[in-house]
Amino acid sequence: MRFTRLRLNGFKSFVDPTDLLIHEGLTGVVGPNGCGKSNLLEALRWVMGENRPSAMRGGGMEDVIFAGAATRPARNFAEVSLTIDNSERLAPAGFNDLDQLDITRRITRDAGSAYKANTKDVRARDVQMLFADASTGSHSPALVRQGQISELINAKPKNRRRILEEAAGISGLYQRRHEAELKLAATEQNLLRVEDVVENLA
Ligand code: ATP
């Protein structure tokens, strides 16, 4: 899967619809301080399902919505779309029916986030899993935040291990294990109820 375009609309400083075309060989984005370079990286992280406002340098998730400027009113929503070349059909089942995959996340004030894969509504979890299984995602070590290198140097071994697990593409397994454990606990409760009922009938 190759990312080919990042489209921003109302996201942070990108108030007007803006396309970043990700051609092969793109290795850097340069521009004056404060022009929005880090916002581009944050948009990429956000559309892949990032849910920590701190990772977006904000206090709440709605802080990603354009907050207004001297000449422009604030917007009511922000939307980011990531276009993925899926011509080699590497996307997982459920996302794999077209040559091009557009993942869109939209946040509306007081209404939270919604995700789409092409035109179909999908859950945040589905999008997070899609990218985690592709060894990328909002926590990917390929996306290096400002200050992250010094954090890494000072990190505890357990946190450093997470980075290796992300790179190995196994981090999605933690979420699946957690979900399996919840199902197991619910099933054990159901079995106890069944035993109670059987005892009462005996
Ligand atoms: P530097 O080179 O200094 O790191 P940069 O090019 O990475 O800068 P960013 O940090 O991406 O720049 O962008 C910062 C700009 O984004 C600031 O001008 C800030 O006011 C603007 N900005 C951030 N959030 C919002 C928002 N919600 N609404 C409007 N503008 C915003």
TrEMBL record:
Belongs to the SMC family. It is found in: Cytoplasm. It comes from the Bacteria. Contains large globular domains required for ATP hydrolysis at each terminus and a third globular domain forming a flexible hinge near the middle of the molecule. These domains are separated by coiled-coil structures. Residues 170-202 form a coiled coil. Required for chromosome condensation and partitioning. It comes from Defluviimonas salinarum. This is Chromosome partition protein Smc. Homodimer. ATP binds at P32, N33, G34, C35, G36, K37, S38, N39.
